Amino acid sequence: MQVTSTSYNRAHHWFAVFVACATLLLIVAGALVTSNDAGLSVPDWPTSFGSLYKIPQLVGGVKFEHTHRMIAQFVGFLTIILALWTWRVDRRRWMQYLGWAALGTVVAQGILGGLTVLFYLPPSISSAHAALAQTFFCIAVCIALFTDRKWVLEVQRTVADHQRPRLFTLTIISIVVLYVQLILGAMFRHHGMGWLPHVLNSVTVLFMLAWTALRARSQYSHVEAIRRPASIMLALLIVQFCLGFLAFTTRVSWGRNAVQPELPMVISTVAHVAVGALLLATTVVLTVQVWRCMPASVVEPVSAIEQKPMVA
Amino acid sequence: MIGLAKVNRAYLVNLRGRESLRLRSGQVRATKFCKSNSRKGDIMNKKTWSAMWVLCLLALWLFVGCSKKENTNEEQGTSPSSEAKPAATAAPIDPATAATVSGTVKLDGTAPKPGKIDMSQDPACKGTNTPETIVADAGNLANVFVYVKDGLGDRTFDVPKDSTTIDQKGCQYHPHVLGVMTGQNIEIRNDDDTTHNIHPTPKDNREWNESQPPKAAALEKTFAREEVMLPVKCNQHPWMKMYLNVMKSPFFAVTGKDGKYEIKGLPPGDYTLAFVHEKLGEQDQKVTLAAKDSKTLDQSFKQ
User: Are residues A40 and B199, on separate chains, in Cβ contact within 8 Å?
Assistant: First the structure.
């Protein structure tokens, strides 16, 4: 594969990993806000109780909502650094674009978060906020992957895929069904629809992801870059299915008449959201790795000035 | 603006359709094309702008029209005297012939064991830990909202000048179920040493969400439209919930702990009374009241 090369920058890579981890923490914080029904405990935005910098008394729902806002600001700040750093040190043009795309996504995410407060949590905006959060997490994970030593320095061998449907197709479909599941789940959590569509689609997700992961493991057992995410995907899928069952039991069945969100309800749903985000990111990583191993080599566009025929 | 555009087999048609430039392949300086059509582009821009202005004015007109309607209703709600005049078709109520309907609301079956509220999230919350979802003492059901659903025709009623109060005390709302008239002033107090936010989530009224620090001045609010069992909650303390009922008539009551209610001053006539509970739903009963009648109308809900 001919690429515009870049040198491996260890600090840059680990910073990208840090941003991805911080984003997962942010998703957990956001899930805690929804699970504790604390979405409007701070009634204003972009200020918090009229102030941009004062930390209010962190009690009740404010503890979750304001902590979420503070982590979000931190992640936004980290993303600015990441985009600028990528622009400075990474010579791959598409990586620079990805850095800016991450920044754009995090800004859009902040605005959606604000709008959902100002419009009193409309299901459509709150669900878009939830879906874009995981999209940003996937971008952060991809940046971490693309700056990894193995990606930058090693030559990925190509493996022919004669089976139909192709594994790449399966991974793309897996991402689509996961996104649909993510939106259905978010709509349910934000009272935009019932639980049935989310539960019904979970069967599709289970089937599709299991098929994809098992196929990847069997067909590419000798390619670590594919085998590993496929194995993680399979493990996460099992965990996620169990957590989904637990979340359903605690929130829909057992906690239907609860006077307030109780700890088992909160833990199971937050864990379900977090593992869902990890599952989506792992599926995206698997897709990228499968794409990389495809025999039809993809020549990245290289500008005439930057073109240096080096093998990454 | 595009400096250089690569166009393959493209038809570039000017905006009036008189001239066209067909390019099979190659590069075209888009700036040149734009320059040659700049006048027509300007005309189109003017047309576009004109259309946009017309659309904007239309939207503004519609918006103002709708807002006026909305404001009219809100004003009706906020002005206690605006609804005072009875409609021409309805006879005024003669206090000498006014009837009363009263009764007891019961719960059939065993009341569910009340859960416990966990107030540990906020050390300043020192209220009772019992939720008020279903309160039934010896089968008498509290917090049932009873109102005249049908039978008053197009009568209108004076809005009481006195405010009604919602108190936040011990991190709970007092009362748990409240009835008010449209436009009646509601005073919302915070007697706790913690901040609350008051967030009604209506279907027909305007939604709002305001925080109220400890010992802050009371909030004064009105609701313009009729709405039954309008939930009010505090997002800082998720167990805090109450229900507001906004009525155009003063003929409503909320059952006490003894399950009793009483509605006085009704003119003789045929009425439908609705009994509404936040969890157990609504049940209706018809009643005919003669002059000076005092009827008993009991109701029971099944658990």
Answer: yes
